């Protein structure tokens, strides 16, 4: 058979007999089963890969040739479906052209085609067969006559199954949008309508945002609160109800890669394969568009200073880069925020070592479903980016040889982070959608996941962690309080008042408004030029504290707060606070140029602590007011730290509160929502341990911690059986679990760290019996709660990466990343990786600095 893996083929009479011992392990996929046919759980191998893909007929997980043996050894599952797609050059006709197209019945796999191949020159053939391990017996498919009925049904069900990334519940969006059934035969009225490149307004009201172009008659009308979370009066929907024209595209989202298209008839976002043609009907050249919130910029309006052009280094012939560390990430539809952050993260040696450096161990000890394991998926992504396996330059001699053999072996350039995104974003209302997101919010979300899934005692996110000293002064008594909190990035305000070109900005704004009013082309953009020193000064200046409660006065008073670095991180992430909210609560962006330095020295921002002559505020907490029903719920429904509502945590973190404090707030308020947790933060934010990590003694300790809020006493140190059961379910010995819990005061997370850091553990039954029978065993091991983990040092840094955002708000636009590698800047723009010629360091959104050793 073509593309065989060296397996042994069976005689017809032996097939049924061979499968009999394995019949109990072969399952028919049920509703809710995720069937992976496109991607290996440990790598980016697919049926397009040289070795094809093996789908387990019991778990429906898929594995490349390099990893299928591991799954067989771990689970004993023997029967796999091997899938392979062959790509060949089409047979030429007598005139030299390809033979006429005809429906290819040999294609049955739902796979992405290779964008580098011209579909008119190549044809595809899919092959499926059963392979039985460990002897690699092969059974060709289909084989209805010789296979047992159950096996035939199971094979058909696997081959016809839908993508596992489609919508799992009503609260999440599909990552794969359906093609609209109206797209192929869409009627477009020949009414002479031409859409201008800017200055749009709803035809029925005065709204100039969230505008939708009806693809039948060219009407421009406002949307409602749907699809992109923008406001509107719903005139686009009213127009559909009046006229029945089904498809509309959102103005401001049109780029050469596509646009947001909505089907009123199908009531969901859709794909329009003929979008370029449909837009051209109204005078829009899709290939020269860049999505913005308020206008389409095409080449007739001089986009020479456009943010899109500058950041993407358009107009410059960029040299593609290949090899280890130069692998791109394919855009899944508004997934560029994730791609940019992950490229920066895996350029850091500590993350490379923690995941890719531990690849054999992480893969070997992964759970039975590695697609649902954070460390496995991080390692898979890191290896995909760093190995060079998926970033190889085309070699002419190989291409000639392939043509001679009439089979094309496509070089995969770039990897699709679909499995990684599906896992890290599950249960998160925003990241699980296909809408554009804030890269800074995703960075904090990722840090949170790294913290919660530490590999032993190793935590690569420690390189970002630093302590902030906050000095709060009561304006009435002049007394002060110093507290410390943990943070992971420095948020730098944009000092707009310090712009060095104010006169130009005023003149530009007047001209722009006049052009919009008269529907004329907009003038050449004038961008505010802000000195970095002014932003740094704004960061260090005192700010007013709203609703400050003075312990000296035992009442609310005016207060001011200043922040300094109590420690400097190994890697400093600086976020430019470009986004704010307009009067309509839609996020807006400051379009500014800041002269970010290559070398950064912030040693002058080092905290100094209590100074001579300063008097501290009394250590008295404000009164706690908790409704009775909330109090009862706290007492009766205490939660395990692993069940903390992460969406509430992220809502609070996005307000600027420390991540650890947000987790504690949600925990101590019993998952009652962000609003109740916010009240907890306001009450506790002045406490010395406000931003320290949540360290609770397992499930049993959760009760004691919650009870301590109301003055109850804690429990003893006897390991709770449910916590012991969790650890033993992971494959560890019971004795080992008990000893680890004893050594960590019954803290589940720290107990797992203890186990990984004590691989030399030997079973000591006498010790365990003694511990289990000792009512006062907590005396034996009183572990001191660990403080915040920081890697303090010099405050002198060097820029090595930055992430830029194009667009006017976090709800739209595009992210790309620049990273300095081997002495030169490289641009990562989704799957395209090139040597940078003019890195736009002044237009970035997030900057990554590494410490310069002193």
UniProtKB/TrEMBL annotation:
GO MF annotation list: cysteine-type deubiquitinase activity; cysteine-type endopeptidase activity; ubiquitin binding; zinc ion binding
Coarse class of the protein's main subcellular location: cytoplasm
Record has Signal as a keyword: no
EC code: 3.4.19.12
An example Gene Ontology CC term for this record: cytoplasm
Catalysed reactions, as listed in the record: Thiol-dependent hydrolysis of ester, thioester, amide, peptide and isopeptide bonds formed by the C-terminal Gly of ubiquitin (a 76-residue protein attached to proteins as an intracellular targeting signal)
Assembly notes: Interacts with UFD1. Interacts (via UBA domains) with SIAH2 (when ubiquitinated). Interacts with BAG6; the interaction is direct and may mediate UBL4A deubiquitination. Interacts (via UBA 2 domain) with AMFR; the interaction is direct. Interacts with UBL4A; may be indirect via BAG6. Interacts with NEDD4.
Family: Belongs to the peptidase C19 family.
The protein's name: Ubiquitin carboxyl-terminal hydrolase
Organism of this sequence: Pan paniscus
Gene designation: USP13
């Amino acid at each position: 058979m073509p593309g065989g893996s060296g397996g042994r083929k069976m005689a017809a009479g032996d097939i049924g007999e061979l499968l009999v011992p394995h019949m109990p392990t072969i399952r028919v996929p049920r509703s809710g089963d995720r069937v992976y046919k496109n991607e290996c759980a440990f790598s980016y191998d697919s049926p397009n890969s040289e070795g094809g893909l093996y789908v387990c007929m019991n778990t429906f997980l898929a594995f490349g040739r390099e990893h299928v043996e591991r799954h067989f050894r771990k689970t004993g599952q023997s029967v796999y479906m091997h899938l392979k797609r062959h790509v060949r050059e089409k047979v030429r006709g007598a005139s030299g052209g390809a033979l006429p197209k005809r429906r290819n019945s040999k294609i049955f796999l739902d796979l992405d085609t290779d964008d580098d191949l011209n579909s008119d020159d190549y044809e595809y053939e899919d092959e499926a067969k059963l392979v039985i391990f460990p002897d690699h017996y092969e059974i060709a498919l289909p084989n209805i006559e010789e296979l047992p009925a159950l096996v035939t049904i199971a094979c058909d069900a696997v081959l016809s199954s839908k993508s596992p990334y489609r919508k799992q519940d009503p609260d999440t969006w599909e990552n794969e949008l359906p093609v609209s059934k109206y797209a192929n035969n869409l009627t477009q009225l020949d009414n002479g309508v031409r859409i201008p490149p800017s200055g749009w307004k709803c035809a029925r009201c005065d709204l100039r945002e969230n505008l939708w172009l009806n693809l039948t008659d060219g009407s421009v009308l406002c949307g409602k609160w749907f699809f992109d979370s923008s406001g509107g009066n719903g005139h686009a929907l009213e127009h559909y109800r009046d006229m029945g024209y089904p498809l509309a595209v959102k103005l401001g989202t049109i780029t050469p890669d596509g646009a947001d298209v909505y089907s009123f008839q199908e009531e969901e976002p859709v794909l329009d394969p003929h979008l370029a043609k449909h837009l051209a009907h109204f005078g829009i050249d899709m290939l020269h568009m860049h999505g913005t919130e308020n206008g389409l910029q095409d080449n007739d309006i001089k986009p020479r200073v456009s943010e899109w052009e500058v950041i993407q280094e358009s107009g410059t012939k960029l040299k593609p880069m290949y090899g280890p560390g130069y692998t791109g990430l394919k855009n899944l539809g508004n997934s560029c925020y994730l791609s940019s952050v992950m490229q920066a993260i895996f350029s850091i040696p500590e993350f490379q070592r923690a995941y890719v450096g531990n690849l054999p161990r992480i893969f070997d000890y992964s759970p039975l479903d590695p697609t649902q394991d954070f460390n496995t998926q991080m390692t898979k992504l890191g290896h995909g980016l760093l190995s060079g396996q998926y970033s190889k330059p085309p070699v002419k001699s190989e291409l000639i040889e392939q043509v001679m053999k009439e089979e094309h072996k496509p070089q995969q350039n770039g990897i699709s982070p679909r499995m990684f995104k599906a896992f890290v974003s599950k249960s998160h209302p925003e990241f699980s959608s296909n809408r554009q997101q804030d890269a800074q919010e995703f960075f904090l979300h990722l840090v949170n996941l790294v913290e919660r899934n530490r590999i032993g005692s190793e935590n690569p996110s420690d390189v970002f962690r630093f302590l902030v000293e906050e000095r709060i002064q009561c304006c009435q008594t002049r007394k002060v309080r110093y507290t410390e909190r943990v943070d992971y990035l420095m948020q730098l305000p944009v000092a707009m008042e310090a712009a060095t070109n104010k006169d130009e900005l005023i003149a530009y704004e007047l001209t722009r408004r006049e052009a919009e009013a008269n529907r004329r082309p907009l003038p050449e953009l004038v961008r505010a030029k802000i000195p970095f020193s002014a932003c740094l000064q704004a960061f260090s200046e005192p700010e007013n504290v709203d609703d400050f409660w003075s312990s000296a006065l035992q009442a609310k008073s005016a207060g001011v707060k200043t922040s300094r670095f109590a420690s400097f991180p190994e890697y400093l992430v600086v976020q430019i606070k470009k986004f704010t909210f307009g009067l309509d609560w839609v996020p807006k962006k400051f379009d500014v140029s800041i002269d970010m330095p290559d070398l950064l020295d912030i040693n002058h921002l080092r905290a100094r602590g209590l100074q001579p002559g300063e008097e501290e505020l009394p250590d008295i907490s404000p009164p706690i007011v908790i409704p009775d029903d909330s109090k009862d719920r706290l007492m009766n429904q205490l939660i395990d730290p692993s069940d903390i509502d992460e969406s509430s945590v992220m809502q609070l973190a996005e307000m600027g509160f420390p991540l650890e404090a947000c987790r504690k707030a949600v925990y101590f308020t019993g998952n009652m929502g962000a609003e109740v947790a916010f009240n907890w933060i306001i009450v506790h934010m002045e406490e010395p341990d406000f931003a320290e990590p949540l360290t609770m003694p397992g499930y049993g300790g959760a009760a004691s911690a919650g009870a301590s809020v109301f003055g109850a006493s804690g429990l003893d140190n006897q390991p709770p059986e449910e916590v012991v059961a969790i650890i033993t379910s992971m494959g560890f010995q019971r004795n080992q679990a008990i000893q680890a819990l004893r050594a960590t005061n019954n803290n589940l997370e720290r107990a797992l760290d203890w186990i990984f850091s004590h691989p030399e553990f030997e079973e000591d039954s006498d010790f365990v019996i003694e511990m289990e029978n000792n009512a006062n065993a907590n005396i034996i091991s009183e572990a001191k709660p660990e403080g915040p983990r920081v890697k303090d040092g010099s405050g002198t840094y060097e820029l090595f990466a930055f992430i830029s955002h194009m667009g006017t708000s976090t709800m739209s636009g595009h992210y790309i990343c620049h990273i300095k590698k081997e002495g030169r800047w490289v641009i990562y723009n989704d799957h395209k990786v090139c040597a940078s010629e003019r890195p736009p360091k002044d237009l970035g959104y997030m900057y990554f600095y590494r410490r310069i050793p002193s």
